[in-house]
Amino acid sequence: MSVLIRRALVPEVPTIARLYRRTAEHAWDFLYPHTPREDLAHFGQAFRKGPVWIAERDGTIVGFCATRRGWIDHFYVAPEEQGRGFGQRLIARALKGRRRVRLWTFQRNARSRRFYALQGFREVLSTDGHANEEKEPDVLLEWLRPAPS
User: Can you give the pTM of this predicted structure?
Assistant: First the structure.
């Protein structure tokens, strides 16, 4: 199995949008339903904000992580590929060279919260979800680069 973590290319936006949709529909029934065209526009905007990293296995995109200065905005791994280390490698790439990174996840997303904790993130704020599109309680996580010893 050949795995590559690399920067995504703009022509790959449709593949990334489809991966998001498939992953979201598999895991969450409470997400606000967007059309495929809205998904394309949304993930196209991510490329204008900062690097989008992909995990590619044998030429197939199996995960992605959209970043901007100080933030991870989107992070998804295909359901059938979860638990194989792709997520860890994507997060490690997103954190490379950074001192502090934040991200949001839903409070009910226990699997993601455990995953992020294992990557060194700590929960810093919980909300009732009033400010997000889904009106779903969420949690802000933060990762800080350890100080040199």
Answer: 0.92
